[in-house]
């Protein structure tokens, strides 16, 4: 493993790490990860770790601790200097630049009855990360990100996903392309709504379905909801009009997983 000692904040690699963390998704380049757990998850996911960063103190043992490939460049730098390149308030002195997975529609629509989540303007990175984690937990095939949705590589989204962002197939698309791809694959599109919608418990989620999750404040855009096959809602007996986007997506994903498990057991 090539090891370099860096003492200057003007180092090109440190600047690249800072850019990747501050402006995720701006280009198709490398993505930044903070903390040993996420770097370890990236190694397990088989992603190419372009450069790893660590504080000088004990940094030499990073390769063995995280299982970094021999070809990964390791940069050791004073802890204070590395922390200047990171964005979390109390960062752990480990980070990495990785090549993001290259997902295709074939990954998102895999299987005989894919369960897909479509994000229409989800802006809170914590919500997005939680949805990715729930998507993986409840067996969704993939996620589609429409314009206006925060980057899945936003550091807060990455942390909230607990590594699921590294494993769950995710593609970005314009609404027209997404709807056409789903239609071609015979996936039923269900827009989440508060009123005038079918209860999730009375909706067949065992078939190929795409759950459209809207913006935290405005919900699914009317223009998109009008093109969906149907509207779906979560019955709430309490005096609450609507649920948080991540909570709503998680409940619907659980209901889909429950129905599918019940159908499998019956068979």
The assigned structural class equals alpha/beta
Overall pLDDT level: 92
* Number of alpha- plus pi-helical segments: 10
CATH class annotation of the largest domain: Alpha Beta
Instruction: Report the major sheet.
Output: 7 strands, parallel
**CA-to-CA gap between the ends?**
52 Å
Task: Say which CATH homologous superfamily of the largest domain is assigned.
Answer: SPOUT methyltransferase, trefoil knot domain
For the CA atoms, what is the radius of gyration?
A: 20 Å
| Outline type | elongated
Strand content: 15-25%
CATH architecture of the largest domain, by name, is 3-Layer(aba) Sandwich
Order of helices and strands: EHEHEHEHEHEHEHEHEEEHEH
Q: Which spans have pLDDT < 50 for at least 5 consecutive residues? A: none
Write down the CATH topology of the largest domain.
Answer: Alpha/beta knot
Strand line-up of the largest beta sheet: 8-7-6-11-9-12-10
- The helix fraction, in percent, is 25-40%
Number of beta strands: 12
Put the structure in a nutshell:
With 267 residues, the chain is an alpha/beta fold. The chain contains ten helices and twelve strands.
Description:
Helix content is 34%, strand content 20%. The protein has two domains: 3-98, 60s Ribosomal Protein L30, Chain: A (2-Layer Sandwich); 105-266, SPOUT methyltransferase, trefoil knot domain (Alpha/beta knot, 3-Layer(aba) Sandwich). The chain has 267 residues and is of the alpha/beta class. The longest helix has 22 residues, at 245-266. Helix 6 packs parallel to helix 7 (155-161) and helix 6 runs parallel beside helix 10. The chain has ten helices and twelve strands. Strand 7 (142-145), helix 7 and strand 8 (170-172) form a beta-alpha-beta unit. The strands form two sheets. The protein has a seven-stranded parallel sheet with strand order 8-7-6-11-9-12-10.
């Amino acid at each position: 493993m090539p090891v370099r000692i860096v003492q200057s904040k003007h180092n090109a690699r440190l600047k690249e790490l800072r850019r990747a963390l501050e402006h995720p998704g701006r280009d198709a380049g490398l993505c930044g990860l903070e903390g040993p757990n996420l770097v370890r998850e990236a190694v397990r996911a088989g992603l190419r770790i372009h450069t790893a960063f660590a504080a000088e103190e004990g940094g030499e043992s990073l390769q063995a601790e995280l299982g970094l490939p021999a070809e990964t460049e390791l940069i050791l730098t004073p802890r204070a200097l590395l922390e200047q390149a990171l964005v979390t308030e109390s960062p752990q002195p480990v980070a990495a630049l990785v090549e993001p997975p290259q997902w295709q529609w074939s990954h998102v629509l895999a299987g005989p009855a894919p369960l897909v989540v479509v994000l229409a303007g989800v802006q809170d990175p914590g919500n997005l990360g939680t949805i990715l984690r729930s998507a993986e937990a409840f067996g969704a095939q993939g996620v589609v990100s429409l314009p206006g949705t925060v980057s899945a590589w936003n550091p807060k989204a990455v942390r909230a996903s607990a590594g699921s962002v590294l494993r769950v197939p995710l593609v970005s698309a314009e609404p027209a392309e997404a709807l056409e791809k789903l239609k071609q694959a015979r996936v039923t599109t269900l827009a989440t709504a508060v009123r005038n919608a079918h209860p999730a418990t009375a909706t067949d989620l065992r078939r190929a379905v795409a759950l459209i999750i809207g913006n935290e404040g405005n919900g699914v855009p009317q223009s998109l909801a009008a093109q969906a096959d149907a509207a779906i809602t979560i019955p709430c007996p309490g005096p609450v009009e609507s649920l948080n986007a991540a909570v709503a997506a998680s409940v619907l994903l659980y209901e889909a997983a429950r129905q599918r498990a019940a159908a499998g057991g019956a068979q």
